[in-house]
Amino acid sequence: MTEQHRITRRQFSTMLPAAAAAVGLVPSFADAQQNYPNRPVRFVVPFAAAGLADITTRLAAEKLGDKLGQRFVVENQPGPGGIAAARGVLSQAPDGYTIGLVTNGTAISAAIYKALPFDPVNEFATISTIGAFDVVFATNAESEFKTLEDFIKSARAQPGTLNVGTINVGSTQNLAAELFKASAGLNVQIIPYRGTPDVIVALAAQRCAAHGRFLRRHEVDLAGQQNPRSGHHRQGAFAVLHQRAHGRSGGCSGI
Description:
- The chain has two domains: about 10-130, 3-Layer(aba) Sandwich (D-Maltodextrin-Binding Protein, domain 2), CATH 3.40.190; about 135-245, 3-Layer(aba) Sandwich (D-Maltodextrin-Binding Protein, domain 2), CATH 3.40.190.10.
- The chain is built from eight helices and twelve strands.
- The protein has helices at about 10-15, 50-70, 85-90, 105-110, 150-155, 170-185, 195-205, 215-220, and strands spanning about 20-25, 40-45, 70-75, 100-105, 125-130, 135-140, 165, 190, 210-215, 225, 230-235, 240-245.
- The strands form two sheets. Strands 8-7-9-6-12-11-10 form a seven-stranded mixed beta sheet.
- The longest helix has 17 residues, at about 50-70.
- It is elongated, with a radius of gyration of 19 Å.
């Protein structure tokens, strides 16, 4: 069993804004033929289907298939820190036919575990960065919470009663929620779900009061109007209370 160690808030806070997804390849293309690819390529995603990483990878896989004339098949292997997916990629031949999605969740795992069953720096060769996303703190649009301050006040008035939903333990969203909880000195429950769809259902059903998540551009395109007085930004059925990114959001004007 791997052993955990502490990471400071300063160290962790530097990891949050990037929220970048990069495609990593097992060791090299050394054994690949010049006519690559001549058979289907596996894209291993360390998250459940229908989440942001999955959707982003499927879009990339479709474009690569069109460009290279071969199928790129997306395979979901969710698990804490992306460890299982990374091990699965590294167990395959280094021929370019198994590609793994490596997110900053992998960097976080390297920071919070003394030992991993692989070397995230030296055992992967980076091909390309395929996306960077804003981290937001959202509530049900019908929620009583219209600002982040509203949520904090309620959490302090009712310690231990509010739930915050995230995806699996060790993910960027999960640790961002834990960082928020610790920084604000709140007694709230962080509930990890298997994937983004499960959290969205829980938030819509008000089984959790808020959700730490990445912001998808297609949700921005369908969003309602921002309330300039409160900073409350409606995202269809959801409302963004707070955003963490480098500078202003490229998707939500005003946050």
